[in-house]
Amino acid sequence: MSALQALPSFVLALFFVALAACSTKPLEHITQSNLAPSPTSALHGRFFGTTTLLISDGETHIMVDGFFTRHSKWHTVINGIQSDRWHIAQGLLKGKVTTLDWLLISHAHFDHALDADNTATMTNATVIGSQQSLQHITRAPTRQMQPHFPLHDSKFDIYSFDSGHIQKKPFSQWIENTYVWAARGSAFADPGTVYSFLLTHPQGNLLIVPSARFPDTIKLPVAADTVFLGIGLVGKLEDSDIEELWQHAVVNTCARQVIPIHWDDFTHPIAPNIPPTQPPFDDLAHTFKILQQLSERDGIPIIFPPAYRPFAVIPETKPFSSSDNVCLQVQRQDKMTNAET
Ligand SMILES: [Zn+2]
């Protein structure tokens, strides 16, 4: 690239770095607590930033998104959006991930789908995703996403739900469009179908909502024990929309704990601490304030995940599964009654 061609990217990189410099510390608004460490032979999770999660019972290893390339804004705008195998290798190493069975792509935006092909080929995983997401997979084996994916020879079942993408405010959309355009990432502009996932397992059920949207038309076949709730850009929503997300994804699914994901600034490394997204890109202070109120109102704890280390994904006080399903029936009955009145 000539110096003249690089000039617009340079100017935009300066702009994004200047935006990033307008920062405060939003995490002080929430009480931090730690998830219990877990032996890797039990059902457990590992968090790698954004929506990249490993869920494993020691026998079957399922990763969501597999995004590890956390270049700075400066680097991304100058060099373009490109998967970086070194970043992936480092992330896998720190999380002690050597092999994966399945890699689920939630949608085709770059912070979800960029690294999927490399991550899958480096771990011998099969990628499951929408038609749009699978366009980015050229070497790894693939399967088209299905509403129900029973995994034979495994204790897991995977359910997928077309839950839609968070509706961005015009300013957020403009920032993102400009950033992706400046970084020559238009191949990742169309998210395709945006999925949430339910992973069922004899030890507990996990609902993963990568993008902060969960219509109440989605009916889970079983109650969720834990919701991994994507909260990226939630700080830009109206309070009533945040409450609606909580109601649909957490209360109506009978979840007993919430683990927030997609709240970190993925243009910084996640170790030793996980950096939160800073204003003006998001308003996490507002997100955390509202979520904390809802958490206290409903008695459902919000617990932040650690980076890399294995943590227990099911609360210790697990009720019998029959009570979970009673809860689901009660929630649905309440909704029908509310709709009638
Ligand atoms: Zn997205």
Topology:
Elements: H1 3-21, E1 44-47, E2 53-56, E3 61-64, H2 73-79, H3 85-94, E4 102-104, H4 110-113, H5 116-123, E5 126-129, H6 131-134, E6 142-144, E7 148-150, E8 157-162, H7 170-182, E9 195-200, E10 206-209, E11 226-230, H8 239-251, E12 257-261, H9 284-298, E13 311-312, H10 321-340
Parallel strand pairs: 3-4, 4-5, 5-6, 10-11, 11-12
Antiparallel strand pairs: 1-2, 1-13, 2-3, 7-8, 8-9, 9-10
Helix pairs in contact: 1-2, 8-9
The protein binds zinc ion.
Total number of strands: 13
Overall 3D form? globular
**Helix/strand class:** alpha/beta
Identify the CATH class: Alpha Beta
Note the beta-strand portion. 15-25%
CATH architecture term: 4-Layer Sandwich
Q: Strand order of the main beta sheet, please? A: 6-5-4-3-2-1-13
Counting structural domains, the number is 1
List ligands, each type once.
zinc ion
Portion in helices: 25-40%
Unreliably modeled segments? 22-26
Run of helices and strands: HEEEHHEHHEHEEEHEEEHEHEH
Assembly annotation: single chain
Mean pLDDT: 87
